[in-house]
Amino acid sequence: MAAITLDSVETLLVDLPTIRAHQLAMAVMQRQTMVIVRVRGSDGIEGIGEATTIGGLAYGEESPEGMKLAIDTYLAPALIGEDPTNINAAMRRLDKIARGNRCAKSALETALLDAQGKRLGVPVSTLLGGAVRSSLPVLWTLASGDTARDIDEAQALLEARRHNTFKLKVGRRAVADDVRHVAEIKRALGDRARVTVDVNQAWNEADAAVAIAKLEDAGVDLIEQPIARDNRAGMARLAARFVVPIMADEAVCTPEDALELARLGAADVLALKIAKSGGLTGVARVAAVGDAAGMALYGGTMLEGSVGSIASAHAFCALPTMAWGTELFGPLLLKDDIVTTPPTFTDFVMHVPPGPGLGIVLDEEKLAFYRRKD
Ligand code: MUC
Ligand code: MG
């Protein structure tokens, strides 16, 4: 049999509207932009992947437009003509020719894994060593910007048994207003729901100390990235000072980041994201460091659509520990989808498709409609 080579890599920018404005400390999202990648081998097998970030350049160093350019100009040419079945070799080649660019690399690794899963007739999680769970708890983020509306949203989702943990986005308003907002929501939901907050680096250490003390009293379960990602010493002081766990998000991308956070005692929990870690195998390496250091793990999202969320789900299903569940609700935040069978969410969990590869198929009509034309 002739050796298989990678014949083509196609990238598309896709813009999907959100169901409501999603307000984060650094951006208000009315839509999500994803880079959809399609790879095709000489055996005719195709794989798909997604690279996504939040708020253009507001969250990380890569923008969707920049990811497309990096893939088209640098990353894809390094893979074309090479063996698409050896994913470790492909990723090593990418790491040699391009520093960083982890969101873009994640989309390519996802697409190679999807194709290889289809080739072998097994799910991506099997390629990663095997799933140890087939469903994942998924929380919902309350981020309408309005306390009463957030409470109504949470009550309805609890009632529908879709989510029983809610993450509140804070950091846009004055600290006292944020604390009041969170405490009011926690009071309304009581013991029926867990409440976490994500500050997206917006507070300084002194504000964080005041706010976390009050949030702890209000019954909040987890504090995500309260201060600047580079202020690891400050995170260590907060982690030592409070009982409520401190989670690193923006502060942890690579295994080296995880190691340094562990060394400093700067986080109790790590938010894992395939996009931050350069793909599914990269996220497993970060998780291994977290595990070894006794840090708890959480399955994070870059608010990906169905392709990226399901790719993340395959990676998270294969991890030995996942103490804090996940936030893979991205497809539910979007008004429409570009896959024929979006993932299902019932009884507070996401069900991971069992089919080969990612287990999903692109909806060509929707893709043609939502793809950026210029
Ligand atoms: C983040 O920083 O965690 C994840 C959920 C959400 O609402 O925003 C993201 C980004
Ligand atoms: Mg976060």
Automatic annotation (TrEMBL):
<dbReference type="Pfam" id="PF02746">
    <property type="entry name" value="MR_MLE_N"/>
</dbReference>
<dbReference type="Pfam" id="PF13378">
    <property type="entry name" value="MR_MLE_C"/>
</dbReference>
<feature type="active site" description="Proton donor">
    <location>
        <position position="327"/>
    </location>
</feature>
<dbReference type="InterPro" id="IPR036849">
    <property type="entry name" value="Enolase-like_C_sf"/>
</dbReference>
<dbReference type="GO" id="GO:0018850">
    <property type="term" value="F:chloromuconate cycloisomerase activity"/>
</dbReference>
<keyword id="KW-0479">Metal-binding</keyword>
<dbReference type="InterPro" id="IPR018110">
    <property type="entry name" value="Mandel_Rmase/mucon_lact_enz_CS"/>
</dbReference>
<dbReference type="InterPro" id="IPR013341">
    <property type="entry name" value="Mandelate_racemase_N_dom"/>
</dbReference>
<keyword id="KW-0413">Isomerase</keyword>
<dbReference type="GO" id="GO:0009063">
    <property type="term" value="P:amino acid catabolic process"/>
</dbReference>
<dbReference type="InterPro" id="IPR029065">
    <property type="entry name" value="Enolase_C-like"/>
</dbReference>
<keyword id="KW-0464">Manganese</keyword>
<comment type="similarity">
    <text>Belongs to the mandelate racemase/muconate lactonizing enzyme family.</text>
</comment>
<dbReference type="GO" id="GO:0018849">
    <property type="term" value="F:muconate cycloisomerase activity"/>
</dbReference>
<comment type="pathway">
    <text>Aromatic compound metabolism.</text>
</comment>
<dbReference type="GO" id="GO:0006518">
    <property type="term" value="P:peptide metabolic process"/>
</dbReference>
<feature type="domain" description="Mandelate racemase/muconate lactonizing enzyme C-terminal">
    <location>
        <begin position="148"/>
        <end position="245"/>
    </location>
</feature>
<dbReference type="GO" id="GO:0030145">
    <property type="term" value="F:manganese ion binding"/>
</dbReference>
<protein>
    <submittedName>
        <fullName>Chloromuconate cycloisomerase</fullName>
        <ecNumber>5.5.1.1</ecNumber>
    </submittedName>
</protein>
<keyword id="KW-0058">Aromatic hydrocarbons catabolism</keyword>
<feature type="active site" description="Proton acceptor">
    <location>
        <position position="169"/>
    </location>
</feature>
<dbReference type="GO" id="GO:0016854">
    <property type="term" value="F:racemase and epimerase activity"/>
</dbReference>
<dbReference type="InterPro" id="IPR029017">
    <property type="entry name" value="Enolase-like_N"/>
</dbReference>
<dbReference type="InterPro" id="IPR013342">
    <property type="entry name" value="Mandelate_racemase_C"/>
</dbReference>
<dbReference type="InterPro" id="IPR013370">
    <property type="entry name" value="Chloromuconate_cycloisomerase"/>
</dbReference>
